[in-house]
Amino acid sequence: MATLSEHDIELIARDPLGGSLDHLMKSLQDAEQSCSSKSDPHDDANNFEQDRQDIISRLLTTLMGTKVAFRLLSKTSGRDVASDLALLFSRIRKGDFTYSYYRPLVRLVLRKASDSEIWSAVLDLITTLTRVTPPESVPATFDSTPITHSSASQQGVEQTRELVERKVFEEIRL
Q1: Of 84, 103, 160, 171, which residue is the least packed, with the fewest Cβ within 10 Å?
Q2: What is the pTM of this model?
Q3: Distances 129 to 1, 73, 84, 116, 155 between C-alpha atoms, Å
């Protein structure tokens, strides 16, 4: 679990979740039960998956709507947790969803764990699912301008020779 700072613990204590997650309990229990049941894997598998996506989406939006989510900072991005939860919500709605990542949080909510444990699990979830994407590779440049080569622009041997000569002379001048 993510380690919460004293400041984080104070933020969480100041605005407790209270019963804000209670309306999700039955749906979360159903999601857990469908994940644990040994039914035919092809029987309603898509329905179960869609139901789990929906309930996790509702859980994230409920958490996003709390004061703590707007004030607690993500350990990875430095943004408020609500912003990172919104990114996770968006990914789920686009179909990028694996229930097992959300399961520890669901279990804590079902167990009515402390707010600190729940927010710590939220921070862990964000750390796990929001990976930093490496920057795109930048093509080789000449004079700080990317050089792109396309066979469409080279219509014949004469044009190719002129293009190459021009670039060679530009390099020689420098």
Answers
A1: 171
A2: 0.71
A3: 14, 16, 10, 20, 48
